């Protein structure tokens, strides 16, 4: 997908804003592991809320995989 730079900048700002509350209330994690699924979900048409939920689920999947 070819995304205009200004559009990508807006999406990254939005991602940072939605990541901030997650980061403050959840265990330590790599920010890029949260950003990637959020950005992907938004590019696929998800709402910001659904994208944040998808990113949170992804982080939990990573945690469970690391515990195995």
Plain-language structure description:
The protein is mainly alpha-helical and 68 residues long. The chain has one domain. 79% of the residues lie in helices and 0% in strands. The chain is built from 3 helices and no strands. The chain has helices at 5-25, 31-43, 48-67. Helix 1 packs across helix 3 and helix 2 (31-43) packs across helix 3 (48-67). It is globular.
The major beta sheet can be summarized as: none
SSE order: HHH
- Total discrete domains: 1
Number of helices: 3
What's the total count of β strands? 0
Structural class: mainly alpha
Rounded radius of gyration (Å): 12 Å
Roughly what percent helix? Answer: over 70%
Mass-distribution shape: globular
Give average pLDDT, whole number: 93
Give the termini separation. 35 Å
Strand content: under 5%
Low-confidence residue ranges: none
Describe how the helices and strands are arranged:
Layout: H1 5-25, H2 31-43, H3 48-67
Helix pairs in contact: 1-2, 1-3, 2-3
Give a brief description.
With 68 residues, this protein is an all-alpha fold. The protein contains three helices and no strands.
């Amino acid at each position: 997908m070819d995304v205009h730079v200004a559009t990508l900048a807006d999406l990254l700002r939005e991602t940072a804003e939605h990541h901030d509350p997650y980061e403050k209330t959840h265990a330590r994690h790599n920010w890029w592991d949260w950003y990637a699924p959020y950005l992907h979900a938004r590019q696929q048409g998800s709402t910001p809320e659904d994208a944040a939920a998808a990113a949170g689920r992804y982080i939990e999947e990573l945690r469970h995989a690391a515990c195995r």
